[in-house]
Amino acid sequence: MRTNKIKISLIAFFIAIFFSCDNYLNLEPEDGTVRQEFWKTKEDVQAAVIGCYNSMLNSPPGVSDRPLTDYLFMYGELRADMVLPTEYASNDERDITRMNILETNPITNWSAFYRVINYCNTILEFAPDVLEKDPTFTQKELDGFMAEALAIRSYLYFTLARTFRDVPLKLNATLSDTDNFQIPQSTQAEIFEQVAGDLEQAATMAKKTYGNNAQDKGRITQSAINAMLADVYLWMEDYQNAVKAADKVINTGDFALIPANNSWFNTVYAEGNSSESIFELQYSLNNLNPFYDMFLERPRYTASARVMEEVFGINFQDPTKKDIRGNRCSLVATNGYIYKYVGLTQYERKSRGTSDTHWFLYRYADVLLMKAEALNQLGMGEQALDLIHQVRERAEALEMTERNPTDKDGITDYILEERAREFAFEGKRWFDVLRNAKRNNYERIDLLLTMAAYSAPSDLQQSILAKLRDPNSHYLPIYYYELYANKALEQNPFYE
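Structure for RagB/SusD family nutrient uptake outer membrane protein, as requested:
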């Protein structure tokens, strides 16, 4: 009975919100109101929160943009060195990989992000009023829902700031068509400050557990928030707080790396929600992911040629020794197919009708390697290497030259190499390299240039390298329609 009430509330929420909001930033309602009569019971609030998660999986009916997870993959991988477009990729996708990016490229359209941000803002605006209307609704329950909305909004703004740099920051719900939609950008630093503050607040209100494994992995928890905070603080170059946030996850004792074995792939990826998982977007048989077409049926992307040999490595003396994360996990070595999202076991694929692999936002290995990155910047190279070795040993990674604990740049390279193996095709590679390149006023811009030298087509290499020497090129342009609709926006200087 309670489940049916939530389903009815969820339908009502989308009628109230989605069909009202589909203009600039997906904030402006056509009928001038967000239907306040929706917000009567705690089931209404819960349905609204669940709606935010669902909206991160697939676009609402009638909307032409891509699923948000598609953007997360493209923003984190296409400009990096581990993915190549195929004949099935669109010209827009190929242009991103070639650094030939124009403001008319629809991949730069951020509306899928702002749509969910507005859902979160609506919850934050209206949910507190339900306390007075529903006597069964407690402050603790409200706090949990508010934490989820704050954290989801924070993650989306964090992604936008890493992708576009300066973006509009709207923290209140759109309630009428008289709202101000001429909103200038906030700086990347301002976005990061807001996100860190919101996440710190959310961490004090969020649940530690829902008492159910799938919900613990698929909804915002204290650990998911602290994993996000570690990430945000790395970008802010606040390494002490990055370590503190990572330690809050580690010290729960709730997570563990799964040793390499024959069922490792199935446990971590095909089924998901393993002991390594902190936060995954939960595709299911009733809500299939977009990855089957992206990577298998008519694959738009394959692994670049260097991934198997140079990222994962091949032991030519003993080919049986291999990193478990490489062939038949991240990719198929013989044809470069990206396998992580389409495999059932190491040698059996899922079908289109069973394509339910999750999108992985944070795993335990991520927290360990983020902590290692922060420790290295704090001059604690030995401790950083210990954490890297934990991740490598469970994956049976091939032996590499031991790094000097006092060689900060060498350990940075080592961490990036390990993150490339551990999070191959999980939408992290471009952001990982950019974060480390831009530290200390682009002290390591060589990381971006070396990556481009590996991946750029030979006839475009010099052009791409020249572009990457301009830091403005590291961020995407604002989509032309947003500039037309909001005169307060200023285009990224690189694209003017």
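The mean pLDDT is 92.
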